[in-house]
Amino acid sequence: MANESGGRIDTVMHESRLFPPPTEFAASALVGSLAEYEALWRRSTDDAETFWGELAKNELHWFEPFGEVLRWNEPFAEWFVGGKTNLSYNCLDVHLDTPRRDKTAIIWEGEPGDQRRLSYAELHEEVCKFANVLRSLGVGTGDVVSIYMPMVPELAIAMLACARIGAVHSIIFGGFSATAIADRNNDAKAKLQITADAGWRRGKQLPLKETVDAALEESPTVEKCVVLRRVGCDVTMREGRDFWWDELMAEASDDCPAEALDSETPLFILYTSGSTGKPKGIKHTTAGYNLYTKMTARWVFDLKEDDVYWCTADIGWITGHSYVVYGMLANGATTLMYEGAPNAPDEGRFWEIIERYGVTIFYTAPTAIRAFMKWGDDWVTKRDLSSLRLLGTVGEGINPEAWIWYHKTVGGERCPIVDTWWQTETGGIMMSPLPGAIPTKPGSCTKPMPGIVPQIVSEDGTPVDTGFGGMLVIAKPWPGMLRGIWGDNDRYRKQYWEEVPGKYLTGDNARCDADGYYWIMGRIDDVINVSGHRLSTIEVESALVSHPAVAEAAAIGRHDELKGQAVAAFVTLRSGEASEELRQELKHHVREEIGAMAVPDDVRFTNSLPKTRSGKIMRRLLRDIAEGKESVGDTTTLEDYSVLASLRSSDE
Ligand code: WT7
């Protein structure tokens, strides 16, 4: 099937199954027919500013009204200019005088099985207290707060508290190493660190505080550190620098009115991989992000008052920011957070959680779906999943086999599937079926959100014909778009706006079929997608080369059944002998430098790397070798043919 010849693209080319929205689903949906969707989309793009302006007025609370809807000084956007609002207010305070006051905002389950529920009123109180804690530690508007925490309610509380006082959060996924934390802290000039003693993962304690201690040795801008007691293990607390969360909260007042913040107040930085070694701090701001995540959450998940919504993403990634926390709370929804692994204590954990809480909407990643398939249907079918009414995927393309399995085995053939395409940079979902309106095709993210104008262009920027692949660009600014790369306007302009002038370059290839359905064809640049998360080849290479034995390294993504792609590394040595010991040492070294998710599955030693005459590593050839394929592509630009033969015979 897939990947024998041309990879995923070939498979989807032959996909012709069409799944119309179930009649009952469409009948009660927010957008209930294709015609309605099309009218909405047309209205939204014919006069985007009126469209977004009206929504902003109706959907957000304004301390002071905005003037212009959009000030577009390409590539810099300002949305809802001059308005004053507050994201934390729009997620919490707006619900307090409504029946949602006592509605559950967050359902939480820890990996050991502990459970908590926070109503909107309780969450509001915790957020106000923690906002006062932040102030007492000297944090104010514009200060950057670095957060390295497990999936616990306090993580959401910390985010909302930052938003309440105009501090900028930079959340670092709990799998990153001390070096990676320090790099990010230094780039962002973080002032405060928040962490926990440890987190639970498959029954083991992840020593978060210990990792932070090492990171803070190299993070001179960080003055103080707040530590949540999650597991109760012993940690070292440095006098004057480190403070216990519970001790600070015990002293804090719960009176903290939300600050009236300018629409464009920076809300968060989230680091993601680009095609150079330096992580990019993607910057999002207040009002536009608030509106875009709120509206897309409502359109895509067709939220109803009694939904129990579960997105399995970690809050350390954009999916968690937008669709575990902000987009959901802005809609007054009930959002479920689970701390641990899907196979702890066994492979049935997710289905047990769905049954226990009556989850109605389930949003996860294709890599997880492939793991569920491998673990076997029994784990799924032995639970009562009849509460589910909608399923979603995100992070990478879903192969049609996995789509069909998800539809049948999890969704009982009654739940629409929303395959949502978007990026850290886009803030929210850009293309996805509206589940009551758009018939789905397995493997396609279908059609754009209201206000979004995608185009497929060739390398010279001209639109390509229907059915042909090309670069996916977005032709109009949208409220949730990134506002820049933290501290690097040049890189922002170069990376996203120069290649195709006037349009946002997504970095993905795609094609659009005759029905106007989009099919994502993977990244253009040297970025690997491991388990739905971007890793830059160059970061892995830099980590390898920083080891004294390594002269040169090339990292590529090769096909992997479970993870989508796995990292394969080709290494030439400066000194010493190739050995199993060195291979393990290099893997360990990458873990230390970046984190576990970047560790290459294969490390191959070679005498030289295939390069063009201008010295560029020919990754395409390495990919073929890593996947055990004959190179059928063009090798005429290869500088030294003998390299290929010796690479093929390199062992792994
Ligand atoms: C890249 C963005 C969006 C949150 C998680 C990842 C790939 C994402 C899909 C999808 C095909 C997808 C793209 C995109 N991607 N969703 N539904 N179908 N590809 O965020 O780390 O910023 O990665 O993930 O290549 O550009 P991210």
Which short descriptors sum up this protein?
652 residues; alpha/beta; GMP Synthetase, Chain A, domain 3; eight-stranded mixed beta sheet; seven-stranded mixed beta sheet; disordered N terminus; binds 5'-O-[(S)-butoxy(hydroxy)phosphoryl]adenosine
What is the fold's blueprint, element by element?
Blueprint: H1 8-13, H2 23-27, H3 34-46, H4 48-59, E1 70-73, E2 76-79, E3 84-85, H5 87-91, E4 104-109, E5 115-119, H6 120-136, E6 144-148, H7 153-165, E7 168-171, H8 178-188, E8 192-196, E9 199-201, E10 204-206, H9 208-217, E11 224-228, E12 242-244, H10 245-251, E13 261-262, E14 266-272, E15 280-285, H11 286-301, E16 308-311, H12 318-330, E17 334-338, H13 349-357, E18 361-364, H14 366-375, H15 378-381, E19 390-394, H16 400-410, E20 417-420, E21 454-457, E22 470-474, E23 484-485, H17 489-498, E24 504-512, E25 518-523, E26 527-530, E27 533-536, H18 537-545, E28 550-560, E29 564-573, H19 580-593, E30 602-605, H20 619-626, H21 642-648
Parallel strand pairs: 4-17, 6-7, 6-8, 7-14, 8-11, 11-12, 16-17, 16-18, 18-19, 19-20, 29-30
Antiparallel strand pairs: 1-2, 3-13, 4-5, 9-10, 14-15, 15-23, 21-22, 22-24, 24-25, 26-27, 28-29
The chain binds 5'-O-[(S)-butoxy(hydroxy)phosphoryl]adenosine.
5'-O-[(S)-butoxy(hydroxy)phosphoryl]adenosine (WT7) is lined by residues 272, 317-319, 394-397, 419-424, 445, 506-508, 520, 523, 529, 532-534.
